[in-house]
Amino acid sequence: GESVGLHLPTLSVQEGDNSIINCAYSNSASDYFIWYKQESGKGPQFIIDIRSNMDKRQGQRVTVLLNKTVKHLSLQIAATQPGDSAVYFCAENNDYKLSFGAGTTVTVRA
Amino acid sequence: EAGVAQSPRYKIIEKRQSVAFWCNPISGHATLYWYQQILGQGPKLLIQFQNNGVVDDSQLPKDRFSAERLKGVDSTLKIQPAKLEDSAVYLCASSLWDANTEAFFGQGTRLTVV
Questions:
Q1: What is the pLDDT of residue A26?
Q2: Distance from CA of B17 to the nearest CA of A (A)
Q3: B103 at A interface, C-beta within 8 A
Q4: Residue A67, pLDDT above cutoff 70
Q5: What is the DSSP letter of B71?
Q6: Cβ atoms within 10 Å of B97's Cβ, excluding its own
Q7: Is the CB of A98 less than 8 angstroms away from the CB of B105?
Q8: Does B30 touch chain A (CB under 8 A)?
Q9: Which of B45, B50, B99, B101 could form a disulfide with A98 if both were Cys (CB 3.0 to 4.6 A apart)?
Q10: Contact with chain A for residue B5, Cβ under 8 A
């Protein structure tokens, strides 16, 4: 079946630099996407969402970009901090089911 | 606003035993999800309820897993009998309406089958 996936399983970034986490989705009918952050021992925590009628949405230090032409989603984190170290998942509303990809582990270097 | 509550937090059982997990979603949320998260993987949807009806249970191993959401509020997920490969974190989430609205997650129940 179709599923959401991430390009890279790990990302190491210097504190203060910007981070970019990528996600490729295969269901062109998906119309709602969410980025989640999961810290060790905790459940996923909502970061930001975007609907298919938009191509960019900004939050506090985070920006999500949606490219429907190539079915690609990205999360940009500005001025990455140690507290940003976690696993990041993109999720999509796939035929009314919330489906997750495999995740990217972000490690912030001091 | 209180979050999604799950219990127990941890559970260790022997294979072939049975186990049950409980979830209390955020008050007023119509949709409730159960996910299985194996170490190093993304959450896999087991079952999704809207109120007390099932939206999807296509990935629920129905020969051993069952779930119910009586009165459209809290929910239980049961495994009987458990297998070693059921070792995982079981996450419950809820959203106000459907999968087009933000889902909030509980802390999960870590199950170890030995």
A1: 76
A2: 25
A3: yes
A4: yes
A5: G
A6: 11
A7: no
A8: no
A9: B99
A10: no
